[in-house]
């Protein structure tokens, strides 16, 4: 029984070795999986592989290509169509003038939430 108690901390320490990641392998695997997802997303959005490389310069190109190619095969097998990205153009917001605010008071009231003043607390 004493041998077990002496060896138990040693075995418990060994179970935590995966969390140390001394060689950086776990981080590299995460980066490869992320690059695969980037490539698959580019293919599904209809981007060429070159555009995908340019928009993600830090991602490993081989992993991006693997993801792009696997998504291409998947889309062909399942007769899926490309789903283009909807690029929204953000218009510059024009500053509100007092005349425009005064012209539509009902719109402003409908959008703004009603704020009630807080009641003062009384000591008990």
Q: Can you describe what's shown?
A:
There is one protein chain. The protein has a domain at 24-84. 61% of the residues lie in helices and 0% in strands. With 124 residues, it is mainly α. The model has no long low-confidence stretch (mean pLDDT 76). The longest helix is centred in the N-terminal third of the chain and has 21 residues, at 25-45.
Helices and strands in order:
Elements: H1 2-15, H2 17-20, H3 25-45, H4 49-55, H5 61-77, H6 98-103, H7 105-111
Task: Write a compact overview of the structure shown.
The chain is mostly helical. It is about 60% helix and about 0% strand. It has a domain at about 25-85.
Helix count, DSSP H or I runs of 4 or more residues: 7
Main pleated-sheet profile: none
Quantity of strands, as a count: 0
| Low-pLDDT segments, ≥5 res | none
Order of helical and strand elements: HHHHHHH
The chain-level mean pLDDT equals: 76
Percent in strands: under 5%
Helix content: 55-70%
Shape: flat
Labels describing this entry:
124 residues, 7 helices, flat
């Amino acid at each position: 029984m004493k041998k077990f108690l002496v060896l138990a901390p040693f075995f418990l320490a060994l179970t935590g070795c995966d969390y140390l990641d001394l060689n950086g392998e776990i981080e590299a695997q995460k980066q490869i999986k992320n690059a695969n997802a980037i490539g698959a997303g580019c293919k599904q959005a209809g981007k060429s592989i070159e555009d995908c490389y340019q928009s993600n310069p830090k991602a490993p190109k081989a992993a991006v290509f693997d993801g792009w190619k696997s998504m291409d095969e998947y889309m062909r097998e399942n007769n899926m169509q490309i789903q283009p990205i909807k690029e929204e153009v953000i218009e510059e917001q024009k500053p509100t003038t007092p005349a425009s605010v005064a012209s539509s008071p009902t719109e402003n009231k409908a959008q703004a939430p009603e704020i009630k003043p807080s009641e003062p607390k009384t000591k008990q």
